[in-house]
Amino acid sequence: MGILDFLRGQSEKSVLKRYAQMMNGYSPVFSQFGDDIYASDIVQNAIRALMTEMSKLDPKHIRNGDDNSQSIVNSSINRLLKYGPNPLMTTSDFLEKITYLREMKKNVFIYPTYREIPIKGGFVRREYTGLYPLNPIQVDFLEDAAGILFIKFYFNNGEDYTLKYSDIIHWRKDFGANEFMGGDETGKANNNALLKLLKTNDVVIQSLEKGIKAGLTIRGILKIQTMLADGKQKEEREKFEKKLNEASSGILEIDLKNDFIPLNLNPKIIDKDTMEFIDKKILNNYGVSIAIINGDFTEEQYQSFYEKTLEPMIKSLGRAFSKTLFTDRELDVGNEIIFYAQGLVFTNMANKIAAVDVLSSRGTLTDNQILSIFGYPPFPGGDIRHMSLNFINREIADQYQMSSKVKEVKKNE
To answer: What top-level branch of life does the organism fall under (predicted)?
Structure first.
């Protein structure tokens, strides 16, 4: 059964729903289409860089204990996150897809399929069977008489489905202007400023091409000293071109009635600084630098990229998953989805090792806390602290020193 078949079974058909109210007066109907900025190679490179980095994440279902311990839960969610969220995607494919949707449309909708398992007391628990990124062309936010929020998806094939909003993982970018959606106040990606930059960049590229062609094709002007009829002009031109092509020595013989005036064309090419400025302005929209695109970044540059761009994305993604996949009770007892970044957090390794060495030698950090600093998930039994025997409690040290002095006094007596 495909995801659309599942949605057909889950879709709410109630006619009592009305459009959810928005304080700014807009109707909460949002189109998912915008201008095709992805046609730009710079935009493609920026988004591809984000997709590649996000695909390295290692998502885990974690349970946090009251004593700050962490353990990996053997759950259906963990199996999906580890082996593949749905039959069509690996975990890396899934992460690339949702990153692409977030950057292009400012909103990612993920539908988790599940089956309900009866438990004691007449309750049921959800066993998740799939995580499917949705790509609607329009969404409506609806509210029923009880105040429950629903979301209606419209797809390219003409079908639409109404589902409880609390069942949808909604990952947003630029969430501020609109009460429900990422993007601008209409819930769409506002690319007007970016499109102006892309247009400027396209003009620059076209001017480079035309300037180079002009410099290679126009070499001079043939000035004929007499008035010639059209037929005679053509004859003179063809004769000149023949001499031009046959002048293997590079010296062209011209009779006294004709002059050849060479043109020293030096087309003005856009300087390097201007081109880099335009590229930087475009890349700033995605928090990606030219060094990241080229792959010749330093550790400091990557650290800045991670902290400014990737880390907020990773944290917000984990919180969006946790909010939807767990009940309030499950959240209260410490269940959480964390997207570990051990494939990303590799910068300033010397400083991290030095800090961990100082803190762990004093018994400050557990083994699992040390792992988390380097972006690795916890392991069972890792919530213990080790410390160096070279360090002891200060109070014990004082007692030890006093005891040593007493012994020394008694010995001297």
So the answer is: Bacteria
Which tens digit of pLDDT belongs to each residue from 90-100? 999 999 999 99
Contact yes or no for 129/3 (Cβ under 8 A): no
Rounded CA-CA distance 253/206 in Å is: 37
- Within 8 A by CB and 6+ apart from 207, the residues are 270
From 193, 180, 189, 139, select the one nearest 34 (Cα to Cα): 189
Angle formed at CA 154 by CA 151 and CA 156, multiple of 5 degrees: 155
Distance from C-alpha of 119 to C-alpha of 117, rounded to nearest angstrom: 6
Contact partners, residue 351, CB within 8 Å, separation at least 6: none
DSSP 195-243: HHHHHHHHHHHHHHHHHHHHHHH--EEEEESS---HHHHHHHHHHHHHH
The neighbouring-strand residues paired with 261 are 221
In 3D space, the residue among 142, 181, 183, 136 whose CA is nearest the CA of residue 162 turns out to be 142
Separation between Cα atoms, residue 121 and residue 118, nearest integer Å: 9
**SS3 label, residue 91:** helix
Q: Which amino acid is at 411?
A: K
CA distances from 295 to 164, 288, 413 (A): 43, 11, 74
Helix axes 41-54, 192-217, angle to 10 degrees: 130
What beta strand segments (E) does 155-204 contain? 160-164, 169-172
Please tell me the pTM assigned to this model: 0.66
Q: How far apart are CA 103 and CA 107, in angstroms?
A: 8
What is the C-alpha separation between 78 and 337, in angstroms, rounded? 9
Predicted confidence (pLDDT) per residue in 339-370, tens digit: 988 655 555 667 777 777 777 777 777 888 88
